[in-house]
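Batch manifest, entry 17 of 40.
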Amino acid sequence: MAFAIIHHFPDGTKEQYDRSVEISHGGPDVLPPGQLFHAAGAEDGGWTVIAVYETEAAWVTFRDTVLMPSLQAGIEGAFTTPPEERTLELTTLLQQ
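Output type: structure tokens
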């Protein structure tokens, strides 16, 4: 079942997002293995990222083997605080 993760970074900026994605994804137009959809933008005084993965296990693998180690090592110019996080299992995922 597809799985969505929504991260909101209070006071986050596009520049911080760009730097984070450059390191964690390997570039601005790259989706990590298992990620089906990625969108991001400014919202409510910060920056929000929405990602959809094939499964929750795909998200956990990316989080634990790529994202968290990268953030814990420190990425110069990236987000400086953990995000507010929401997740949900998707019953519907339409794609063109």
